[in-house]
Amino acid sequence: MSSLSPLVASEASVGRADEIVQRITEAIHLGLLDDGERLPVEIDLAAQFGVAPMTVREALATLREQQLVETRRGRSGGSFIRRPASPPVDQLIQRLSRMSASDVRDLFDEHTAIAGQAARLAAERAAPYAVRRLFALTDQLGAAGTLGDRIRADSRFHIQVAVASQSARLARREATLQAEVAGLIWLPAEPEVDVARYVEEMHAIATAIAAENPDDARRLAEQHVMGQLARLTQVNLDLSTTGPET
To answer: Which domains, and CATH codes, for the chain?
Structure first.
């Protein structure tokens, strides 16, 4: 299944059912898997993740318990995605509260390196249809009316930049990073994201890629990523001081 492929690392096999649950859950919340989309059969999923079919069966059972997957029987049956209306905000807050300031900084340092290089290569290699997709995703974020829609449009944009770089490794790493950062960036906490400015920055990155200007594309992508570090550091500090609400 092409939607899952960016989240399935080729360097090492996923060995436990809970890790498969995490990967598929990430793909759902990032919008890489659409509501109602049919997953591959168990034997094909097992091959993609490099595990035994029994492990996939266990993971699917957990996903059904979490109401993220629905299994239907019959000729047209199978396992189908049930995407929740909103992302798991409480879980995201708990995860951020467990991170140190150094953890947050290191995460953004890595994302800056990956996003910057992906944008630079995209400016040199991107096909016209890939560039059009970037502008479409920018428009989607600007028009997004829910937290889930914003997270999905944002993460898809960054993954699309990496895909446009025509580097499979960068695309896989960006997808994994988006699973870590996208939900955190859009947490409904003070200080809030300046959505209009955020969209403008994405549009500028897409414009530099369309103009085949690798230096500007890299600089703008790096600035865009690091621009959220100060905000998340403040949110993280507030959580460490007051604790997450329960």
So the answer is: 16-81 (1.10.10.10), 89-242 (1.20.120.530)
